[in-house]
Every structure is written in C-alpha cells, then in structure tokens.
Amino acid sequence: MTVDGEKSRCDSFNALSTSCFAFLFQKPAEDWFQTCCTEHECFLVDACIPAILLFSQKEEKWVLKECEEDKLLDFVCRFWDYVSEAVCHDCVSIFESLMNLHLTRCMSSGPLSLWAKNVGRFLTDLPSSCRGRYRCILAYNKIVASSSEVLTDDFCKEIYSSLSNSTLVTVVSELIAFDVVQNLDNSDRLQLHSHLLRASLQSPTKAICSAVQKRLLPEFSKNSLLLEWVLKELKIFQADSVYGTVSLETSLYIAKFCLFHQKGNGNVQEWTSFIDESVVISALLNATGQIRLMAWSLICDHPKLAASISSRQLLLYKCFLATNMTEQSPAVRLTILSDLKKILIRIRENGQNILKSGSDESELNPYVNFICWLRDLCFQNLVQYANFNRRIMALQMLEYLFLENYLANNDKDMFFKFLSSKLRPTEEQIYHVIRCLDDSYQICQISALRLLSSSFFEIRDFNFASYFAETKQQLFSIRSLLTLTSSYRLRFYLKKNPDSLQSVFQCLLNLCKDRVKLISEDFLMIASNQGFVYSILSAVGVALEFLDFQSTVKNDWCVTLVNHDLLPVCFQVSELVSPVVNSMSPEGFVPDDHVNIIVDVKNSKKLKESADFCQALLASCWRSHKYVSAIFYIIITKWLGNSVLSSETVRCICNYYWRQLTECKHSGAVEASVEGFEALCAKLWSLSLAGIPEFADLPQPETWIKQITDLIDSKENMLCATRRSAGLPHLIASILTKEPVTNDAQCLKTTMISMLKNKGRSYKAQVHSINIMRAIFLNSRLSEAVLCYIEPAVNVCFACFGSNSWAVRSAASQLFAALINRMFGIPRSMQLSLHPHEKNRLSSFEFFTRFPSLYDLLHLQFYENEKCVSQLGMFAVLVLLIHLFPSPRHNIYSLATYVLPLLKFSVSCRSMKLRELSAATLISVCELQDAHFLLKWISNIDLISCTQNEICTIILMLLELAVAFDGCELRSCIKSVIRRVKNNKHFERWCDYNRFLFLTLLLKIRYQFTALFAEKFVLSDAVLNLLMNSRPLRLEFWRALSKSTTMKLTEIEMMQLAVQDIRNSGPFVQRCILTLLLNSTTTHSALFDTGFLKHFLHELMMTKQSNRHLANLLLIKLDHNEWCFDWLYSSAVNEDQKIQAIAVRALELLLKRGTPDIQLYKIIVVLLKSQNETIREKVAKLCSHMVNLKTASLNPEILFWWFVHYYPEIEEFISQCSNFDNNEHTRLFDACVLNPYTEAVPICSEHLSSVLQLIS
C-alpha cells in the first residue's frame, strides 16, 4: 500500500537490474498480494511478473557463473528420476536451457569449454539408468553436435542393452538413431551399430527383440538416409541369419519391415524379394501360434492395395486357412480375419482392374477359384462334431464373403457381380447354416441368423411348417440349451414368414396361459416338464421384437393381446415365482443339513432326486422371472409414451421393478431388472420434462429417491438386508444416471446429503447407505459429478471402521476401495506389490489441493489409533498415503509431517502385513532429507533392547530405502548400519524371519561380506548341523529346494536322505521330494538301490493322491518299461494343465527310448487335441520329426491329420473315447464338456496332401 506523496513499490522496476528482484528470495510478505498503485491491483502479478519478463528479454547476453551452473546441474540430477513425469520434463527443460545459455558464452570465446566437456563425460559415465538422464544426454549431443564430442563405444553398448527397459526404450531409440545419423560418414561407428543391431535382433531376451522391432526400427524409418542404411543392413542380416525359433520370428518381422519401406522400388516388390519362401512355409506351418500368425500377416499384406496375387501365394493362403480354423484365441481369430479382409480387398481391386481393362476373363479364374474354395472350406467346417472355434471362424468368414463390403463396395462391384452366380451356396450348404441356429453358443446363432437374412441364402420349397413344429417341440423341452435355440429358430421363421406373426403370437400366449393356470393350481409343477413356462416366455419376447410399435394403433389385435393377455400373464408369473426368487441364492444350492431333514439320508436315490428338484425349482423360477423382465423391457422401450399403455399398466410395471430391486436377494434377478428399470427411468424423466397432460399421473423418479431415504431412516426397515443391499444400490444409481442435465443433479445432491448423514442410524441403515454410496462412486456415468462428495465419504469410512458391526466395517472397506479407484484411477494391471503403479499415484500438492480436508483427517487417524483396538482404519490411512508422493515444487501440504506418526506406528505395529505396508508407506512419503533422518535414527537406536517386531520394522525400512533411493549416497549410510550389525553380531539374537530379511537386505545392496561372516551367519541357525539330525528341518529344506528354479539336488548324501524321507512323509513333502528327484540330472541307480524306491512308487500309484502322477513319471524315468497306458491316457485327458504337463514329460521320456508303438500314438493324438495350447505346441514339437525329418516344428492340427491318416485305428479310438451324444432332452442343465476343443472325427483332413507337398 502507498500513501500519497510516497513512491510506489513498483517504481523500483523503472531501472531494471538483478537487484530489483532480490526480495523474491526472501520470505513472502502480505503486501506482495496487495495493490501498490492505482495501475496495479496486485503487486506480484500485475507489476513484478511483467517486469521479470521484460528484463529477461532485454538481457540477452547475461550468463551464469560456473558455480551457479553447477548448482543447476546438481538440481537437475537430483530430480530427473522423480516419480512425477512433470518434474522429470522440467529437469530436462532446465538442462537444455542451461546448456544453450552456457554455449552462448562458449561460441563467443572459442571452442567447447572444459565445463561443457566435463558435463558430457559426467552424463555418459553416470551409473544411473533413468529416462531423465538419457533425455539430457540426447539434448546435450544435439546442442553440441557441431563439436567433436561423440558418444563412446561403451556407452553405445550400454544404451542397446537398455532397450529391454520399457521406460527407457523410447528415448534410447531416439538416442541411437541420432548417433547413427551423426556418424553416417564414420565407417567404424556404423560397423559398431550394425554389430549391436544384429546382436539385439538375435538377443535371447524377448524384451530387447521386441523393442528393436516396435521402437528402434520405426525410429530409423523417420529419416530417409537412416532408413536406407538400415534396410541395407537388414538385407545382409537376412542372408546370414540362421533360422531358429527366435531368428524365425525376427526374419519374418524384417521381411515385413523391408516390404513396407521399399519406397525406392515404387512398392512393386513382393515379400519373396526379402525372405526365402521355404522359411515362410516353415513359419506358416509352425507349431507356435505366434510364428504362424506373423507369417500369415506377412504374406497377406502389401503396401500397394491393388498388387496382384500369384497362384503360389493363393496356395499358401489355402494351406494356412485350412490348418488354422480351430484357433482358440478371439484376438488371434480377429487378426486372421483382418488379414483375410486385406486379401479380399486385393482380389476385388485386381478383379475390378481386369474387368475394366477388358482383359481375358480367364485371368480371373485363380481369384474366383480361391473365393469358391474359401466358401466350401467354411461349409466343411460347419459339419457335425466341429468344435466351437472351427464353427465361429467359418461363420465369420462367410460373413466376410456375403455380408461385408470387402468383395464389393458402392464404387467397385464389377468383380462381385461377375462372381455372384458362382458364389451362391448350394441348398445343402445353406442347411449347414440353418443347423447353426441350434448351436450351443449364442454368438454362432447370431452369426448364422445374419447370414440367413442375406439374399444368397434363400431356399426354395423350404418346409417352414415342419420347421415351426420342431421349434414348438423344443419349447416343450426343459433343457436349457433348447430355450436359446428355439428363440433363434423363431427369429428365423418370423423373418421369412412375417405374415405369421399374429398367429404365432396368439399361439404362444395360449400356451403360456395354459401353463400359468396349471402352476397356479400346483406350484411345484413349474419344475416339471409339463409346467415350466420360461421357454415360452422367451419365445414371446422374440415375437415382441418383431412388432412394429409405430403401426400398433392400426393393428388392434396386437394392442388387445398385449394389454389383455400378455401383461396379466407376466404379472401373474411374477407373483408366483417371486417368493422363491426373492429369498434364494443364484446357485440354488441346498445345504446338506437341510436335505437331511427333507429326505431319508440312507435312501441316496431319493436324496439325489430331492436335491435335483430343488435345483430345478429355483432355476425354473429364476428363468421365468428373467424373461418377464425382458418382456417388460421391450414393452417399455417400444410402447411407453404411446397411448397403447394405460397409466395403470405403467404403474404396475413400476411396482414390479420396485419390488425386484428392494426385496429380491437373487443377484441374477437384480441384474436382469436393472436394464429395464434404467429404460423406465429414462422414459419417465423425458415424459416429465415434456409436460404432456395424459402422462402427468405417472410415477416420478425423484419421488422414489425420497421413498428410499425415508425407508432407510425408518425404524421398520423393510428393505432387503443383505451384505451388499441386493438391488437397492442399483435402483438409486439407475435413477441418478438417467437424471436429465436440466435438473442440475438435484437428485444426486439430495441422495448424497441423505446418505452421508450416517451417524445415529441403525446398523442395517448404515450398511444400506454405504452400499448406495459405493454404487454411486463406482458408476462411471456420474463421473465428475460425484467428486465433491469424496471428502465427506472418506470421513464416513473412517467413522465406520470403528463400528462394532462387522457388516458396517465390511461395507465401509468396500466403499473405501471404490473411493481409492475414483481418486487415483483404476489400476492398469494387477498390483502384485505393496506399491501401486506410478500412473495411479498423485503428488501431495495435487491430491490435497483437490481434497484439502483429508490432510488433517489423516493426521487425526494417527491420534485416534492410540485409543482404538481395531487397526482397520490405519490400514486405510496407509493405503491412501502410499498412493501419494512428495511434491518438490510446493511447500504446502508437505508429506514430511506424516513421517514421525508413520514411524511411531510402524515400530508399535503388531500385525506383520500391516507392518510391511506401514514401512513401505513411510519410505514412499520420504524425501531425501527425511531418509537421512530415518537412517540417523536407526544408527542411534539400541538394537540390543529392541523387540523382534521392532527389529523387523527397521529391516523392512532399510529394504524400502535401498530400493527407493537406489544409486544415492544413502547406500553408504545403509552399509554402515549393516557393518554395525555384523561387528556386534546382533543377528545372533534375532529370530529366523528377521535373519532372512537381513540376508535379503545384504543381497539387495550387493553387500560384500567375508566368507567368515557368511559362515557364522548361517551356522548361527545351526542349519548345517541340524539338517542331518532334525527331520522337521529337513522336510522344510526339501520344500524350499523344490521351489528353486536354479538349484538342483545333486549331492549323494542329500539324495539318499530324500529317498529315506519319502516313505514317512505326508503328501505335501512327498510331492516336493518327487519333484527334486525328477529334476535331478544325476543317474539314480548309481546312488542308491532303486528297488526300494520302485516298490514305494508302485504303492503310491495305487492311491488316489495327486502325487501318483509324479510317481508314475519318476517310475518311467527309472525304467522305460514301467509305463502304464491307462495312467498316461487318464493324465492326457485330465482337465488340470499340470497333470497334462506331467503326461507330456512322460511322453518325451518314452519317445527318447526308440520307436513308439500304436498305444503311444493314441496318447500323442489325445494330447494334440488338448484344450491347452501350450500342451499342444509342446507335443507337436516332440513329434514333428515323425512326419518329416527336416521339419522341426509342425502345426498340431497337421500332425493330428497325419496320425489319423496313417493309423486308421486311432480315429476309431477317438470316437470311442469321446462321448459326444450324452445330453438328454429331459435334463434341466446341459452336461459340461471336459474338453471343448476335441472333435470326434478329423475335419478337413483332405488338405493334408497339399500341406505335405509344401514341406517335402
């Protein structure tokens, strides 16, 4: 403030100099933010900042002193690896400005200064591996590029090895590309890069190969000179490479890279110019799916859309497609189809050009034959016993041919018109698609229905009357699958016979009314074949889909049937099934004690019948309820708002949904009701805003909110009292998500204010309000609207963590988890450590600026914890704090104030898990000075008087410090603490777990301890002495050793001890010892008498323990003649992948002994049809040499065809062993298939000869 006649504070800026701004480095004063004169409302913003900007523009030649440059460089190095990316970016920006400012002085005085040279050496020699350091190195080399300073050869090797680091791969790629560009005239340096590039491409580390392919080579392609150099190097590499598994993948990638970067050749060369065809063939037929996919992508793609396709390439397409129809992964299937789309487009373009140019139509024959062959292949894969993968792949390919615009679009349809007459499927082929309407997978039914809607699939003289009769018969089957199939059959029938809609609708309603009348007289009939109604309700829903709601006024029959027949029946069904559905769980499981009361336990047959009836009763009621909800949903979306539905009918539908979402316990019923209720809310909101008089008496969604809040607060709480409040949260969330924007979220405000007033409520009311808040915070559609309620919701959580009711505490913990996701984002991947992903963390400044009241609230929890027995609240505090990191650019909301409370809590913590989390949280909020303080405290503490829990906490803190401040001067402080422990031998008084943690710490910091210390450290636990004499300790040793991936059991004494212990041990230890003996590379017979071991293994084989599989495997390892077909077969067909892996190991041992017999071939074929892809690939690699000695790896499907073709008895064996027709039409639940991948007969095996010709 100024007084008249006095100079204003801003007048000092008239003569600009550095002294004018010295006050900025002092403590802020209040008058900085006040007016200084009539022109400036705020001195700091309106006067000071503009003056600084003006001064910075005038002082162009001003430079920093060397000591100031050192300080800035030290600041950059201190924070360039900070958790926040913004801080790292700022550090790099500061470094660039610093170097540019320094070089301004250097250029005027001559060559590069000694300081700048030292900075370059310092950056390259620094051991730190962080993105900020490499960014600074890149900036430095770009700025001093004109000087003679270059990166050393050792540093080049370092950055190539850093390609495996996903954090560094981008900047490292840029750095490598920059160095190559700078040294294009340096043959020695290019030779080094060539060598390193080849080594990286052939690296056994997949991360490095992937980084070169996905980041480095694309970075090279951005520069034309660099691209020319790398293409030349890659072609040389292709010529010299040896095609193993890794090199095969790399060769395929290089070929595709060269194919798409051949700009100098005008994009005219094919992939055959960059890779040998035999290599591509071996890749197309490889056992590894990823290699096959890469080869397929290579031969399908081309930079030129209209590039022609040779007959040889079409043959390769055929072989690949025929052998990969059973691909399991949806992502891989999508990739195959995506590349097929490219082929079809290329064929369309070529066909269009040929027809336009007037060339001989015979040139189109290869393309036409391929398209027709592809069509026939698809229909061949729709035969009986084809597995799901084969069926869905065939149907999707047919959609590409007949429905999509890949063979024809609006502008280019000449080729498709030429092809249409030849492409039309036969009636037999169309019947294959019609049979897919009876598929057990809905996705296949949807695809088949789409195809049958096409004009290509019209059938003359199709007997629709007989088809509808069959469909009605399926409606009368209680089997769950037939309910779904009859719906899609009916859709097909009504699409082809729209005039039959009225008669079908009337027929279904009559059937429905008859059955409802039956179950009204005897409710238990609903679980019988004569009384169940859900399949008919499903069919009614299908018929409703075909009703045109725009013309319903004209069609009086439709209005009459819906209002007078359908709706009353639906309400009646709902009333009948609601008592069962509302009070039962989805599984319908009947506990044994209840069953024992109902029936005589001794009569097992009657017991099973009663249990099955209970299952059938609930399933029938629940399915009926589900289809009623689906019918109401259709009626709401089509007719609500139309005069067809009366207000009374709408109120009845509203009451139906209200009851389901407030009284029902069945989660499936709740979920089925939510979709319809959301549609109802949206309609009611819109009608309310429209203000139409005839809809004025309809229920209002906001009144439901008031009713719910009143019910929660009322003493007579009639709401569903389950752990998660059943459908109540869904009801509230549905209303709020559909609230109109014009309502300004008033319902949301009313709801949250009411739910947050949790104090004084009963336990049930608290659970309901907390669960409702959880549903609101989890709903992504409410997004930013709920952020303002996060702070009070966290308050509610902490208040409820101390509740005496377990249900309240459980609900509060679930709400808190939802709040963590809302505040920090949903984790991108599963959190496998105590520390969350960096993307799910916030700086303290950013977090507490958004939620300021939580800063003091968290402090309060530490105080409250001292008076509370439960530590659940502290767990939540730690989880929240570990998501934060210190903000270096702001002093407010410092996390340093939490260091002492966290330290006090960690030392006094009783729970091991909580102690680990508290130590991790403590170090995560520490800055460097806080870490120094902790180490100083640890150094001064008396370790002798510390309890074991306190020692554990200290070691955990040291472990976290070693990781968090890696490469920092703190390492020396940690090592001094370790030396103190070592010299004073404190570890002798520690428990085993603390010694283990201490040993982990030594390994973590690479502590160089002497052999004498190590011996004393180990002997202090008497491990070596007790191992021979203490059996319990020895059993624990077997367990630990069996889990090791590097250590093997090779010592004679140890193996003899293991064999002695195996008989008198439990199943768990026996499995560990068996694993050790199997993994041992030592010949067992040379160490001990195998007779005793064989005798024990034979005994173990007769038991039902899981160890019998390992026993059989070990017996085969000891003597190949001891193998048993029955065991090996049962292991091969087992659902457990681990047991199947044991069968594969046994197969490998048996194949090594010599020529296999037909019994072993049967096992091979069973494993080739395993559901697990890894098992199939392993077996294929073991057996590929049987087909062709030159082929090391073949597709399992090819091997399956080969074995069945050359050994016909195997096909009979597969058909006998697989039970494919065991579903009765009277079963409520469909039987589960043990292996959905297997097939009763070989399909498309006629293509085997073409495949064998390719590999011959």
From TrEMBL:
Coiled-coil residues: none
Keywords in alphabetical order: tRNA processing
Q: Which residues form the DUF2428 domain?
A: 564-807
What is one Pfam family matched by this protein?
A: DUF2428
Q: Does the keyword tRNA processing apply?
A: yes
Give the superkingdom in one word. Eukaryota
Q: Which PANTHER family match?
A: THADA/DEATH RECEPTOR INTERACTING PROTEIN, THYROID ADENOMA-ASSOCIATED PROTEIN
Q: Which family does it belong to?
A: Belongs to the THADA family.
**Name this polypeptide is given:** tRNA (32-2'-O)-methyltransferase regulator THADA
Gene source species:
Wuchereria bancrofti
